[in-house]
Amino acid sequence: MGRVNTHTKVDAGIYFVLLTLTLSLGVYEKTYAQTDPAVVTISKADLDPQDQTIYIADTWKFMPGDNKVWADPTLPDSSWQYVSTYLGSSELPFIDWEGIGWFRLHVKADSSLIGYPLALIIEQHNGASEIYWDGKLLYALGEVGTTVQDYLPYQDRQPRSIIFEDTTSHVLSVRFANFDTKTYSDLGFTSGFRFFFGDMNHHVAKIIDEDTGYLWLRRFFMGLLLAFTIIHSLLFGFYPQEKRNLYFALFTGFLTILTYTILKTDLSYSPIAALRYYQLSLIVWVLTSVYALRFAYSLFYKKVPGIYWFFFGTGFTIAIGSWFNTQYFSFIRELFVFISVLEIFRILIVSFFRKREGIWLIGSGLILFAAGILYTILANLDIVSGDPVLGNLYGATGLILGMSIYLSREFAHINRSLKDKLREVNELSEKALEQERISKQKELERKLLAAENDRKSAELEKARALQLSMLPKKLPECDFWDIDVFMQTAQEVGGDFYDFVLNTDGSKTIALGDATGHGMKSGIVVATAKSYFHTLAGEQNIVNLLRKMSEGIKNMDLRMMYMSMLFMRFEGHHIEYTSAGMPPVLHYKAIEQAIQVHLVKGLPLGGNPDFPYQKQTIEAQPGDAFLLMSDGLMELFNTDREMLGMSVISSIFKENAHKSVSDILDALKTLADGWAGEDIQQDDITLMVLKAKDTKVQK
User: Fold this and answer.
1) Which three-class secondary structure state does DSSP give residue 107?
2) Rounded Cα distance, 399 and 361, in Å
């Protein structure tokens, strides 16, 4: 029941006919990756060509209870039982489930997926979990606790990065908690989780596309329904004798609520909240069919026939039952809706043969609705290409417009005597109305521009959060060096990055980089660089480290996305330094009280991996200071559009180099603030200051 399993290609609750028809067409089966009882083997060939997903089976090894040792990849688990991660009600009594347990999956990839940017796709997650990869905690969804008091379930649709570095077997371990299994079981739903693998770039782009396009379309449709509800409610308020406006307003009103509850089901981060919205949507779905039938009777019957009250009582009974057990009432609910639709068709056919006035308006809307349903069915079966949601939206819009036009036409006939007077009013107020139209058009354009700005701001905020999450949580401690770092992000995210690694031989490697471009793509490049850096930091030759990272970024094929990078490796006061497209390093020599500039030229990473990168060797003395930086500070503009440049930075660094690393950074920050003034910062500024300690004094 991933996100309550209500997010499908179509809004089934809104278009109730589609759900009934598709029951007889079967379920589309996905092709799953090859599995055996011990290890799941995946390859690039397993990626589904349409949705770029590798579908793995839900049967994992399972152990009830809680022991974090069970994340250890070397732990023997041959005695663990095989269980579906869905945790259905039919198997919970047989696995000793007490709210928490561990699941393990042994998985390996062939050479086609090594270094490939994969993602962990969350198809269902109805609890809280900690996800371990070879014993290392990668992600936490919610808060896992051993009691219901310290447990917080969570769900979202965001893909999580997974990279296979070799073809050996790995262990994916999930510490999963759900203390609400009885609630799910009583309602007929599964209470566990379901994970797949997929192409990271494809699924990130898909999430962005859905957030900016698909959700907007549904919200627009909900607003359209609400507008019809309000309009026809007002028409009924002005002329209560015309009750058809009331029944049509009730019909569109329930459609509005239905659209809202389905939207909330998809967007809720709480699984229980999503479940409740889904239950509510099923109730509203049934009531929508009841009032659709009531509206149909009001069109062509002077008095509502007695059969309607049978539909009314049965519909409310099924709606109430659906709240307490959605699955048990599933068939009855869909059968009821199907029969209601048949009754509406019968009313329309009879009215057509009796040549009821205006039947062609409603008939046209019904034809459009049926055409939309047919298009959706064909699109879901991949017989035609296109978005099935559009077929339903356009079909339902056609039906509602047809009915609304019919009611408006009837209302116009009743008030025909006012036509001449209204024409005079229209002529007298034509200019005023035109001006009002222009004002409303400008207001609409302003709101659309504001909405677009809000969307872009939200995307930039996501990219900024991703960039900051790549940074180390704390600075490393070192016997030979004092280190401090400052980063100030711009309004448009540039993708600056720094990190530290302690190598097995006792040396330390420092990385400082700057990704080109802005937004989510630069965040992806930073995430990739961080992963490669931690994986390859033990490389003896830092030039080889540059080449390997460059080749990996190039293979991502992000189109004109590159990463400037600087590496420094420290063994005591001995330094090896290399660079790929980064600004020079300023070296303050304490004995000479002078600045030496170290510059190693090279192409940014992601271009030509065979570029002949160079390195320098530097012997530092106690009191020496180094300034490493991205290009944000030296390219900072003032209000006169003058660039700060390197000479001023070098001068300030020299004046303060005898101070502590934090004082040096404060001086440079003061320089940046004073230079920029009120001007908006255009790029990230990252500064790293290192100062050699006097080890003799320490001893």
Assistant:
1) strand
2) 9
Residue tagged 């460059």 (tokens): 550
For 403-438, write each residue's pLDDT tens digit: 767 766 766 666 665 566 566 656 766 776 777 777
Half-sphere exposure of 243 (CA within 13 A, CB side): 11
List Cβ neighbours of 114 (8 Å cut-off, separation of 6 or more).
164, 165, 166, 167
Q: Which two tokens stand for residue 559?
A: 């189109």
- Which position has the token pair 């009974």? 317
Closest CA to 231 of 390, 401, 432: 401
- Give per-residue pLDDT as tens, 601-637: 989 998 888 899 999 999 999 999 999 998 888 888 8
Q: Residue 425: left if φ>0, alpha if ψ -120 to 50, beta else—which one?
A: alpha
Number of helical H runs and strand E runs in the chain: 17, 21
Query: How far apart, in whole angstroms, are the C-alpha atoms of residue 30 and residue 605?
Result: 38
Contact 343, 373 (CB under 8 A): no
Rg of the chain on CA atoms, in Å: 32
SS3 583: coil
Tell me the C-alpha distance between 70 and 72, whole Å.
Answer: 5
Between the CA atoms of 45, 46, 52 and 53, what dihedral angle is there, to the nearest 10 degrees?
-160
Longest dimension (CA), the chain: 107
Amino acid at position 510, single letter: I
> Domain extents for the chain?
31-205, 239-419, 429-469, 470-698
Residues whose CB falls within 8 Å of the CB of residue 247, separated by 6 or more in sequence, listed in order: 291, 294, 295, 298
Residue 138, both tokens: 């990668």
Give the ranges where 48-158 is alpha helix by DSSP (H).
Answer: none
pTM of the model: 0.51
d(CA 171, CA 624): 46
Tokens standing for residue 106:
């042994």
Q: 31-205: which CATH topology?
A: Jelly Rolls (2.60.120)
Assign a CATH topology to domain 470-698: Phosphatase 2c; domain 1 (3.60.40)
| Cβ within 8 Å of residue 439, ≥6 positions away | none
- Angle (CA) 303-305-309 rounded to 5° is 120
Beta bridge partners of 95: none
